[in-house]
């Protein structure tokens, strides 16, 4: 089996040790580290993302695969020269004020990183002020907002209003179990996605990157 397939297989089964071994072998054979990342790690994580959306795998499998991917990335990093790995954009993500749910947000964050984006994760319970401060500091291309409670999704509107002055320079995507496309339209978000895999697709579309 070609080495890239072996890497993908190990990553999808969440075997971090095998990912490290096979990635090291591929690098020793002279394979381009960027090819290993794009056609190995990212492709494998995309497959996991689609399986997760289709309920073929569940949260623990995604987290284990993501851990294996991080191991792979650590193995490849010393071989990356300067601008070899171009990040596709910066995403600022957080769960709204009053809401402590972060499992879904973390998955979205992991999938975005796996898709080649730089992700700044603000965590949970994030106020309008904190979002605005972070936008000033990190100048993200996209702000991603998560909420899991019907009582907190309304706060997404406050954040969107708080970011009004920045709308020319960034896009806003919202998500979380009670959020719908209709709701996203009502509060003036640029996009909505029901799960982590579609979130990556939507962000790619918003930024017009592959
Ligand atoms: C785990 C959990 C908790 C944990 C959270 C731990 C943590 N670190 O996250 C704890 C125990 C802390 C908790 C507390 C509470 N919870 Co709770 N919790 C859940 C539970 C069981 C699972 C949520 C989850 O992680 N799902 C798995 C992830 C992968 O799915 P997800 O979050 O939906 O995320 C996916 C998508 O929504 C989307 N997505 C998520 N974020 C984003 C962001 C963007 C930008 C995009 C594009 C997409 C996106 O992609 C994700 C991946 O595919 C749900 C029930 C359920 N089955 O959903 C209740 C649930 C959300 N909780 C609920 C409630 C009521 C509470 C409490 C108020 C309970 C209480 N009385 O104390 C507190 C509130 C605490 C607070 N202030 O936030 C209710 C909410 C009801 C409602 N509609 O308002 C639910 C639905 C349970 C129920 N049926 O009553 N909870």
3D architecture notes:
The structure is a single chain. This protein is α/β, with parallel strands linked by helices and 210 residues long. It folds into two domains: 81 residues, Methyltransferase, Methionine Synthase (B12-binding Domains), Chain A, domain 1 (Orthogonal Bundle); 118 residues, Rossmann fold, CATH 3.40.50. Helix content is 53%, strand content 10%. The chain contains nine helices and five strands, in the order H-H-H-H-E-H-E-H-E-H-E-H-E-H. It has a five-stranded parallel beta sheet, with helices on both faces. The radius of gyration is 18 Å and the shape is elongated. It starts with a helix and ends with a helix. The site of cobalamin has 28 residues, from helix 5, strand 3, strand 4 and helix 9.
Compile the SSE list and pairings.
Layout: H1 3-12, H2 16-28, H3 33-53, H4 59-76, E1 90-95, H5 103-114, E2 118-121, H6 128-138, E3 142-146, H7 155-162, E4 171-175, H8 181-187, E5 191-192, H9 196-207
Parallel strand pairs: 1-2, 1-3, 3-4, 4-5
Helix pairs in contact: 1-2, 1-3, 2-4, 3-4, 4-5, 5-9, 6-7
Structural features:
210 residues, alpha/beta, Methyltransferase, Methionine Synthase (B12-binding Domains), Chain A, domain 1, Rossmann fold, 2 domains, five-stranded parallel beta sheet, 53% helix, elongated, binds cobalamin
